[in-house]
Amino acid sequence: MGDLLAGYDRSDFVDEALDETGASLPGYERLLAALEELGRDSLTERSAQRDQLQHLRGVTFTIASDQGERERTLPLDLVPRVIAADEWSELEAGLIQRVKALNLFLADIYSERRVLADGVIPARLVLGAPEYHRPAWGIKPALGVHVHVAGLDLVRGADRGWLVLEDNLRVPSGVSYVLENREILSRVLPELYDSVAIRPVAHYPAMLLEALRACAPEGAPDPPTVVLLTAGMYNSAYFEHVLLARHMGVDLVEGGDLFVDGTTVYMRTTAGPRKVDVIYRRVDEEFLDPLAFRADSLLGVPGLVNAARAGTVSIANAVGNGVADDKAVYRYVPDLIRYYLREEPQLNQVRTLVGAEPGDHEELFDRFGELVFKPVAGSGGYGLVIGPYASRQELDGLRSIVTRNPGGWIAQELVSLSRHPTFTGSKLEPRHIDLRPFIVTGDRSRVLPGGLTRVALPKGSMVVNSSQGGGSKDTWVLRAPPEARERVSLSAVARAGRAVISDGGRAQQPLQQHQVQQPQGPAC
Hints:
It is a single chain. By secondary structure, this protein is an alpha+beta fold. It has 13 helices and 26 strands. The protein has one domain. Strand 6, helix 8 and strand 7 form a beta-alpha-beta unit. Helix 1 crosses helix 5 and helix 7 (204-214) packs across helix 8 (238-248). It is globular, with a radius of gyration of 23 Å.
């Protein structure tokens, strides 16, 4: 170990970069050597450059606090995470398998419900789930795709194997930080990118646009008109909405920019109404259509669900997806893979007890202090209680809540998240991490190489959620040996994303018709 790793605490956790003796694991030798060569003073200076670039580019995220919501830059650690090429290939296959099965599950439960009739999963868990939306009944998306964009949360288990912790199939966010992390870190620490050959990520907007176009309704023009529907600048992920719309070259619209005439969706433009074929929605379902969901919503488009049912517009992700990433349904995903695909799951998941299930109820209460409790309707880490780290008072209060509403809770085995060297301002220290890869489906499914590595910044914390103050890392997927001679350069990354790197520190491209520009400054 060098100076930066002096005193590095190996403890009993799985470490991504170092083995039990403190030696670098494959893929990390050159990276850690390059960091040691830079040294503490240089890394501190590069940290300041990183912060300045994030501020100039407006890489922000909104988090809730005791003082209300506040906007901040998403912390980016200087030490990338590395995933070997062969390991990524196996992981990629498992992700595609899981999303395929979940897509078939959604198509089934909003039509024939064969899976319920065959008893693969209890009907009460599906039909009684908060996110099972009856307005979605009978909607048949183009190509049968319900899950156009999935973001699955993964962790490493004690055996270094991957575990699926959660499925996110509604409006998964975070991919903009994958793109920005690569862009910013390659500017701040170009030396690191000379040490290994990695796969690019900047082609994601092009990959997403291709998938959205492929799922346009039958009879749509070529190319179809695609828009990104946002809840507006006060949404926590608005930065991401702007970035994706700009790089895809599509209009960024709010609910008031669209209207439905009959069963056709139109966009208001200065040249008159323009028919819309595909809507990439970044608005939660309950606000999407006031005629189908919340009548007081001003964010959605009246009649949009009926237009989707008529097949004149495609909504990505489809309405009703939330039931497939319900925390109680999660327990049965391995069974869904076997049922729909006649295959064994390629990815494992965390053992889960469902409070409403008679077979789980007794064990859940017997092992109350050993398990991790999550509210079924929760997200973003809110409501999470880690039993072994909770106080007696917290556990007693939680026990009372779960006793009154067992159906609102699940409990999972405690998984010790793997740790990764993280620059804390003076040296490298271990911090817990997870991974959110993104799977995009159109006429086929593809996985963005890497994904968003989230890191729990406070020492000892296992809560990595951005909404809870977590940070992120650049995620490197190494190239396979035949490609190893092709070094990833900044210019190559820019070409892959159809961008031109300007001297002003922003990734830009020539504006196309109907293309939005990103607002300047940190307020976006």
